[in-house]
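Notes continue from the previous slide.

Worked example: a multi-chain complex. Inputs as given:
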Amino acid sequence: MSDKKKILIVDDSEMNRALLEDMLSDEYEIIEAENGMEAMAYLHEHELEVRLVLLDIVMPVMDGFETLAMMNKNGWIKSIPVIMISAETAFTYIDRAYGLGAVDYISRPFDERTVRHRVDSNIILAEKHRELSSRLSAEIFEKEKDNRLMIQILSHIVEFRNGESGLHVLHVHAITEQILTALRKKTDAYSLSPKQVSLICNASALHDIGKISIASEILNKPGRLTPEEFDIMKTHTIEGAKMLEDIPMHDNEPLIKTAYEICRWHHERYDGRGYPDGLKGDEIPIAAQVVALADVYDALTSKRVYKPAFTSEKAVEMILNGECGSFNPLLLECLKEIADVLKNELTVISLGNSTDKEIHKSVARTLKTGGSDVSNRTIRLLEHERMKNKILSSLTHDIIFEYSASPEMIVLSEWGADYLGMPVTITDPKENDFGKRLFNPKDFKTLLTALKNTTPDNPSISEKFMLDINGNKTWCKIVANSMWSDTESPEYEGAIGKIVDINDETEELLNLELKANLDSKTGLLNNDAARQHINNALAHSQGKQFALVMFDLDNFKQANDVYGHLFGDEVLEHIAGILKRNIRSSDIAARMGGDEFIVFLDYKGTVEPQIKRIFSRLSGEYKKFPIKISMGVACADKTVTDYDELFAMADKAMYAVKKGGKDAYRYYDESMADITTDRNS
Amino acid sequence: MTVKECYDVMKGDYDDVLSRLRTDERIKKFLLRVVSDPSFANLCDALEQKNLEEAFRAAHTLKGVCKNMSLTGLAYSASNLTEALRGRSDFGEDIEPLFKKVKKDYALTMACIQML
């Protein structure tokens, strides 16, 4: 990898790009793009490496102004300086470019010194900016770390004096955070910002500092407290609040204010029966309500001199039963929801890592709100991740794709691009082979819609599509996860996923399905499948006329008895063979069981010629064995829309043939309505 | 023919280009690239197909290329055509003579460069 800083030159004229490259390439690595779209594709992958963009205005596909607008939309304009290069010198052009965030403007013709100087100085400026902000965030990191450390030291002093391990403070912190997060999802009645949540969590550590003023004989008394002693114990709330109140000059600090509320009122109860002030309902500040609940939960689940540790389930049950006083019903709901998470979380909290974890989180937050600046370390990590990704994806033979919604583009894994015969980066996939040929355009739209309709909590989809891979229709499964911005209200950004060839297994499945529908002896449809197909045909008749033919062999019993079952089977296969040869592809032939068969067909005008033909083809002999059949035919007029009804009619007609001397066919008519066949008796 | 002589014949500004690009060697290198630059061909195609938007872009690019190389004569005629085409949707009488001038200057410029 070259150590030179990268500059992206976006200009449609190759000549211009070459000139600029000639002027800059001794010191910079030059990346060229022919238009804005190509530049977007490159920035999308390498936003953190590009130190500066030289951007032309008049270009095909995506011009310079649109490119600037896109860079604004993606937030790149904040971290990558853009210098406009153009022969346009009209003020309106220049103003518009500056308005969209360009940092400088070089007009053609290029002068080597000017180009060099402006590129150098803008890169240095951007680097200074980057360095300063990373130094600033490091300082915030240190300050935040110190603050937390002080709070922790203070609260641990109290706990150690109290004979506790010091874990209580950490637990209350964790539980408080969980409850508040759940509460924020439930309601905005308490208008809790992320900043306030973190403030309350920090202040929660101080909830018991008043205990420092309680005599240690009372504080650490192993047995039950007398009423007088308990009254003294209760004063830790007011004492703690007083200490905070007395901190000179800082009484307006939000941290102190919140800590005051927590210290004073974390033993108040929702029904007004707590202490010291007997506040009721939402008179108790939400910070104190939440910490009170966290305090109680942790006390229940921890071992104390006077009690064993209860399980998480038991503790939640006791709290819900009101055994520890009454709490805000909303908070109780939150507690129920997070019970499982708490159970796991509290077991992994140890003294060592919790501060680090918290600080990491807060720094991540600071970095995020502080702008788009990324430290060099982050860039290295990212580079590392990308390498890893590349290697991993080259090891699997799946087609991995990354879809970004705006500007629309697909980035394929190298192997995938090779396999599909497509470029790695595909801009505007809807208008390209990717969305038009590989996918059926309708399928592609379905896929994109499905992705867009996912949620950050439930981002996965898995869909089957028939893809056209280099001319071969292939069943593929698309497994993908949508990606969302990491912001307060997440925005859909695109998706990452893979295309897996499942053609063989799908065909296998279709085959199995087909087999399940077939009668094993004759290869005709079986009863169930026939019913399904026929009902389907009747429901979508579109004015067609249908007839159901039912027949059995007059002397089949004899074939079995005299020549044996194997011969009987041969006869059945022979009949099935005749049927298969003598019906049209739209007709349905099935074996109902035994020697009974049906044929379902459509006709125009009269069905007689078809019936006559089937009847005469079936009659005859097989290996000298005479075949005679009794056949009933039922025609579906408009009143018959159901297979079972049609079946009963054909059955009756067949019965009438048998009664009348067999070896014939008859149509069902009204006179047969009252016939009782073996089946319906 | 020296680079300077070449510039004199094709009505370019040698002093200007030298001050910006610094060496004769580099100027020569990029003059040869002007020959293979497609914007003039694009311009001819676009005008033939009466695609005015495309023609504007091509003329604009040609102008930029010429300005970069201080080919003042061709840059001037390309600039006049560019302005006539800017924002145009109908093909007017005025375009043909402007285009003719560009063609003439382009031919001269190419001939000179090829003699280098």
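Summary box: Residues 3-114 of chain B form a domain with the Four Helix Bundle (Hemerythrin (Met), subunit A) fold (CATH 1.20.120). The CA atoms of residues 11 and 73 of chain B lie 5 Å apart.
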